[in-house]
Structure formats: C-alpha cells, structure tokens
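Dear all,

This email documents one entry for the complex benchmark we are building for the journal club exercise. For each entry we list the sequence lines for every component of the assembly. Then comes the predicted three-dimensional structure of the complex as a token string, followed by one or two observations. Please use this as the template for your own entries, and keep the labels exactly as they appear.
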Amino acid sequence: MSLQELLQQIVNGLVVGSVYGLVALGYTMVYGIVRLINFAQGALFEAGAYLGVATFSLLGAFGTRQPLVGLLIALILSALFTGGLAYVVERVAYRPLRNAPPLAPLVSSLATFFLIISIIQVITGAQPLNYPQVLSVTPWSIGPITLAPTSLLIAVVAILLMVGIHFYVQRTKMGKAMRAIAVNRNAAALMGINTTWVVTFTFMLGGAMAAVAGVLFGVEYGSVTYNMGEFYGLVAFTAAVLGGIGNVPGALVGGLTVGVLSSFATIFLPNQWQEAIVFAILILVLALRPQGILGERVAERA
Amino acid sequence: MTLLEVESLVVSYGAIRAVRGIDFALSDGECVSLLGANGAGKSSSLKALSGLMRPASGRVHFDGKPVTGLPAHEMARMGVTLVPEGRQVFATLTVRENLELGGFNQSHEHNQEDLTRVLETFPSLEARLNALAGNLSGGEQQMVALGRALMSRPRLLMLDEPSLGLAPLVASQIFEVIRSIAASGIAVLLVEQNVHRALGIASRGYVLELGEITLQGSSADLLANEHIRRAYLGHGMGEGE
Ligand SMILES: Nc1ncnc2c1ncn2[C@@H]1O[C@H](COP(=O)(O)OP(=O)(O)O)[C@@H](O)[C@H]1O
Ligand SMILES: [Mg+2]
C-alpha cells in the first residue's frame, strides 16, 4: 500500500463520511430528545434520493442546462417533501406509542422503514435510476490525490449543514427547547414549550437532512437503488453510535470516521467486505465504548 | 376576584385515586397553602392544575376561563407556573439557559428585565450563570427553579415543597423570597410539609388527607387548631419547624 493510496482513501472516506454524518444527525437528534432509535431514518434517506431523481426528471432539459440550479431545487424540494414524510412517520408510527414500552416505538420504526422501502420498490421497480451529472466528473489532481468537483461540493454542503445544525441547536430558541426536552420533557412543558411540536419538528429536521444526504449521495454515485436505504441507513446508524448517539458533533465525527475506516478497508480487502467491516465496527463500538467517541456529552445532546 | 376555581377535582393513576374530588379557590394576588402528610395528594393536585396530568374528572377555571385538561404548555402561557417537586432544573444546561427557558414565551426585552430582577433576588446566581445547573447546591438549584418560574411572569405561582431537603438557613432564605413574591401581587399556591412556615406566609390554608380536603381556614385558625398542632406541628406544643 502506497502513501498515495492511503491519502486517496482518506479523501474518499471523508467525502462519503460527510454524507453518512448528515444521515446520522437524524438518528442522533431524535434519540437525544425522545430516546428512540428511529430506524425509519434510513428509508427517509432513500426517499430523499428518489425525490431528487423525480425533481431532476421534472426539470428535464432545464436541469441539464443549469445543473447547479437544478441541484439546488432538487435539494430543497426533496428536503421539504421528506420532512413532510417524517412528519407523517412521527404522527402515525411514533406519537400514538409515546407512552407504550420502549420496544413498541422501536419495532414500529423498523416496520416504517420496511414499509417506505417497499413502497419505493413498488413504484419504481427494482431497477436503479440514474442521477444527472451535475458537475464535471473530471477529477482535479491535487498533489498525489484526485478529487472530483462534485465530491468536494458534496463534502462542503454536508459539513456546512452539520455545523449549521450544531449552532441551531446551541443558539436558537428552538434548539434550547430541544435540549430542555432532552433533559426533562415535563419540566420543558412547564416552561411553556409545546413539547409535542418540538419533537415532531425534530423528526422533520432529521428527515430533511436525510433527504439532502440522499440527493448528494445520488449525485456522487450517479444512481440510486430501491434498497440503498438498508445498508446506508445502518451505516449512518453506526456513525451515530460511533460518534456518541444523542450528540450532534458526534454525528459528524462518527460519519467521517466510519467513512474513512470503510474506505481504508477497501485497500486491504475486496469491496464486498465493506458491509462486514461496517457492522464489525458497530459491534466493537457497542462492546468497547458504547457511549461513542465523544461520549454522551449530555449538555450538547439533542 | 377569583383567579383559580377548582371543583370536584379527581386525579387518578390507573385504579389509584390520589385526589378524590376536592374543591377550593384562590383570589388574584392571594397566597394560599395546601398542607398534608406524604402521599396526601398534594403533588397530584398540582400536576393536574399545571396540565402535567389530565384530571380524571372535575372542573378547573382560571381567570374565569375553563382550563380543565389543557396541556402544560398552554397553562404556562396563561400564567399558571409550577415549580415542581425536587426542583427539576435542566441539569446539563447552564444557569443562564435555565432562566431563559423560564421566559420562553416572553419577549427578549422582558427576559432582560426579568433576568436582572432575578439576579437581584438571588445575587449568588450571578457568578454561576455559566455553570451547569446540575453542579449547583440544592439551595442554588431551588433559586434557579424559582428564578426560572419568575421569568415566565406568572399570575399564579404554584410551589411544590420548595424547602424540601434544604439546610434550615437556606430554607429560610427561600421562604423570605416566597414571602416577597406573594407581597408583589403574584398569587401563590404553596404546598409544604413545613406547616408552620407555610402558614406564616399564606393567609389561608387547606389540609389534604388521603386525597380529600379535611380542614380549611385562615392561617391563624389553622395554627391554633388542635388537630393540626398534634398532626403537623409536633404534639400540640406549637412552634416546631
Ligand atoms: N406516578 C404514580 N403512580 C402511581 N401512584 C402514584 C404516582 N404518584 C403518586 N402516586 C400515589 O398518589 C398518592 C398521592 O401522591 P402525591 O400526590 O405525590 O402526594 P403528596 O405530594 O401529597 O406527597 C400516593 O398514594 C401516591 O402513592
Ligand atoms: Mg409531593
């Protein structure tokens, strides 16, 4: 293995890891405030990716002539619709089970995950759909490594969004309400916070981030498949656990780490091993450091 | 003018009836005490009045409007503020954030004014504004809980055992603050085990036993009552704290 190969895999890992981090954000925020692992998050990622394809096909020739504008429209529409879908998920699959034993909403979130993925499969068939080429795929050579403009764009958008969410949670009134609910939901309600709405909004925000990740992912890999939410949903879950579930900066750290580790693995092992590597990481983290890299810094939870 | 009116309030946990049809009322600006032994149903009553629990039956009016079963955040927005049992500060948020959350539905200007006033009331919090509330002493946490409640500009402040677990000196300080809050015209519903101190502040009191109001009257009458002296003030000898 050469140094150049190593550097190249780090760069590739950071790009894809930033997308994982964006999906992990939804797991971590929902877990932070209602202690639920919302497995539907992986399906929302996939739904977001498909809504992006749908937007591009509606835009038609315009999207080809103005690919960046098209991408922006796809990101916004997909985030809005997937946020709406997350609203429905929360209303139907989570809220009625709020006072049920914790296993019930967990199972319900898994069922929702499979439901959404099955619906996407029925509507689109099992054929992969292609994403338009948004930016030049001709990679730049930066010293020993190469980086496509699209990849750079993806990493920048994903990381900026994550940093933005971090400040949103730390600085705004809504963010403060989220953190208060994370500590003590009843006490938050006594402050005059409509906790039901804040929880719903958190689901929607997580869904919107998953959608952005889905579109960026589609652009990076050029196509989407009906079962992409299964593997990548679990990769993002691994990222959330690795970074410290409930911890917003942890989603970024976990995403980048999983991205880089699984990229590294492809140096030593054939590509098919990538899934096994990711789940081995998940098991190791749960066994050795269940609180994740950043621990559960509860003060920053949400 | 009647600010709070409670009729036949019943609060249940499944089959357990914690509050069995109580009636009471409180006027604007009045300080009233709700007394009773452990398990009498005091906290359950406050949970129902603050909207944390839905009453099983009964009617509650606040400021002339029916508010039975309204959720907690709507009660809070109407000016009904509960300082819950055990303070329940947001332990992993800073003192400043805790206080700001109290003023969640108030304007920025109100919050700035009120923060200044809260810090005048509790000067020791000033140096602790950026500390995590969970790292404060019990007394300081009670100050945060009270300060946070004041930030919401309550019309009715309900306090659930504010002196519980505090050193006597700190408890005295808290009772003085409650006295000045009551004097400022905010109606106060004070739940206490420290009957002597509570009746020293309140003008009237209700005694709750096994979910029912068994005795009511002016503080002076209650302090002189033989049953109260025996059951809550230590063998009829009076002055115990
Ligand atoms: N969460 C609960 N579940 C079941 N029973 C409860 C619960 N909370 C209180 N109770 C019961 O309700 C009764 C009144 O309790 P509470 O209102 O806390 O009394 P107090 O505040 O006067 O000490 C008690 O018998 C208590 O055991
Ligand atoms: Mg109690």
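Observations: Strands of chain A lie at 129-130, 140-142, 145-147, 223-224. Residues B 42-43, 85, 160-161 surround magnesium ion (ligand 2) (CB under 6 Å).
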